[in-house]
Every structure is written in structure tokens, then in C-alpha cells.
Amino acid sequence: MASSSSIAAAVLTSIPLGATTAIAGAAHEIPQEVGDFAILLRAGYSRGRAFTLNLLSAAGGVLAIAVAIGVFGVTSGQALAGVVRPLIEVPVLVGLVYVALRARRRYYPAVPAP
Q: How far is CA 85 from CA 33, 82, 93, in A?
């Protein structure tokens, strides 16, 4: 979702910057989506079901930005929030993962093997 937000912001700045950002985003997203697909297959989903779930989860962020820009216009605060929100949300979520890992070590120490 952060990649699609970056692409949208870059296209609003200039088309060549948007194209470059899209290529960089694809270089990141394609391996990630392949990994997500493999995890769904390993979890027991059929190929068709895994593909559908993977496509729906990936399309949500792009759809939200497109709707915000289409309804409120490119220069609106809502469109800006749709683009900027994931750029803020992702680092915060990564930080919360680190907090959770530290809390686990503190409150649930490893039990030594017998």
C-alpha cells in the first residue's frame, strides 16, 4: 500500500518521476506478492483462491486512493490523506512490532530447555 501511495504522489509531481517510482515499486512488490501467494498455498488454499485473496488484499490501497482522488479532486485534503496515510502508518506499525518484541522478551522470558 505504501508503494502505491508513493507512485500516486510521484505521478502528481511529474510523469517521469511516477514511471521511475512505479518501476522501483514493482521491484519491491512482485517478490512480496509471490511470497504472499506461496504462504496462502502452504496454508492449504487452492491456487485460484490464493490468487483471488492476494489480488483483493493488494488492490485495496490503490482503490482507496483512486476513490479519494476521483471524489474529492487531486488537490483536496482527502486525496492527500489517502496518499500520506500509508507513508505514516507503515513506520508506526514497524515500530509497534519492535515494541511487541521487546515486551515479549520482558514479560514472557524464554523457558530453559530441560
A: 21, 6, 12
